[in-house]
From TrEMBL:
Residues 186-282 form the 3-hydroxyacyl-CoA dehydrogenase C-terminal domain. Belongs to the 3-hydroxyacyl-CoA dehydrogenase family. InterPro entries: 3-OHacyl-CoA_DH, 3-OHacyl-CoA_DH_CS, 3-OHacyl-CoA_DH_NAD-bd, 3HC_DH_C, 6-PGluconate_DH-like_C_sf, 6PGD_dom2, NAD(P)-bd_dom_sf. It comes from Pradoshia eiseniae. Pathway: Lipid metabolism; butanoate metabolism. NCBIfam families: PRK05808.1, PRK07530.1. This is 3-hydroxybutyryl-CoA dehydrogenase. GO terms for molecular function: 3-hydroxybutyryl-CoA dehydrogenase activity; NAD+ binding. It is an enzyme of class 1 (oxidoreductase).
Length: 283
């Protein structure tokens, strides 16, 4: 299968990064979001990132211009009628994703692969919202996308081998290392990572230590590049909460119960770096 035109849905932190690496690898990309302003914000972030690469001498001015030219803004889902692959990176909410996949199924050409960057939601359930579950697959990038090497590739129950192979090849062309994982809540990455983050939030909630101390222990003691509370801020506390709820619902065990402090922060709109405040403040 020849992949040329890609649509990335959601111009937030993940969607922008995915659009950037796709354009860098030579794909034509639609970056789609609900509103033009959201897409423009995503494009501004990409431009800033790419300029940093130019400043470091890792990209020429011509390469930067070519990369940016390959990304077209979209606030109309009808643009999906021209695409070979959709990578959905909208908010981590099953209803939103099902609705999007049902619409994409109507619009995208019959050969198109519909991939989702979901952190934890069942691929099989998202696929069931379409009439082409064999062409639906999980393509889970890590944050920040241009830097992190891993892509978890998750087959739904019906995903065809050719679709898996096409997405695996695409991930390699993006300079990533694909790892195959089966469709269970949270896959591997978030089933292991998110309970650790949730436990770190519990230690803060119970007054075991200050946020700085908790992060310092995990950085210096476990050699983690970033402490769990800072990492939660970078992921987005809303996304962390959605993932914990998916683990709790999907695996049915109390050990996945989200910490009440996490819920409180999300209710306050303290979603982490993207809103300027989470466990820490960001200017
Ligand atoms: P974000 O909050 O930065 O961006 C989400 C974007 O989706 C927003 O711009 C929003 O306007 C847009 N959106 C919402 N509903 C939409 C719709 N119906 N149609 C089009 N656009 C819509 O979120 P982020 O962090 O980029 O996460 C996106 C997805 O990627 C989620 O599924 C998340 O679980 C997953 N993910 C997140 C990671 C992280 O570290 N933040 C890592 C890997 C996956």
């Amino acid at each position: 299968m020849v992949i040329k035109q890609v649509m990335v849905i959601g111009a937030g932190q993940m969607g922008s990064g995915i659009a950037q690496v796709c354009a860098a690898a030579g794909y034509d990309v639609y970056l789609h979001d609900l509103k033009k302003e959201f897409v423009e914000r995503g494009l501004a972030g990409i431009e800033k990132n790419v300029q940093r690469l130019v400043d470091k001498g890792r990209l020429s001015v011509e390469e930067k211009a070519g990369l940016l030219e390959r990304i077209k803004p979209s606030a109309d889902l009808q643009n999906a009628k021209e695409v070979d692959v959709v990578i959905e990176a909208a908010v981590e909410n099953m209803e939103v994703k099902k609705q999007l996949f049902a619409e994409l199924d109507q619009i995208a050409p019959s050969h198109a692969i519909l991939a989702t960057n979901t952190s934890s939601l069942p691929i099989t359930e998202i696929a069931a919202a379409t009439s082409r579950p064999e062409q639906v697959i999980g393509m889970h990038f890590m944050n920040p996308v241009p830097v992190m090497k891993l892509v978890e590739i998750i087959r739904g129950l019906a995903t065809k081998d050719e679709v898996y192979a096409a997405i695996e090849t695409m991930a390699k062309e993006l300079g990533k290392v694909p790892v195959e994982v089966n469709d269970f809540p949270g896959f591997i990455s978030n089933r292991v990572l998110m309970p650790m983050i949730n436990e770190a939030i519990f230690t803060l909630y119970e007054g075991v230590a200050s946020k700085e101390a908790i992060d310092e222990v995990m950085k210096l003691g476990m050699n983690h590049p970033m402490g769990p509370l800072q990492l939660a801020d970078f992921i987005g506390l809303d996304t962390c909460l959605y993932i914990m709820e998916t683990l709790q619902e999907g695996l049915g065990e109390d050990k996945y119960r989200p910490c009440p402090l996490l819920r409180k922060y999300v209710k306050a709109g303290w979603l982490g770096k993207k809103t300027g405040r989470g466990f820490y403040e960001y200017s």
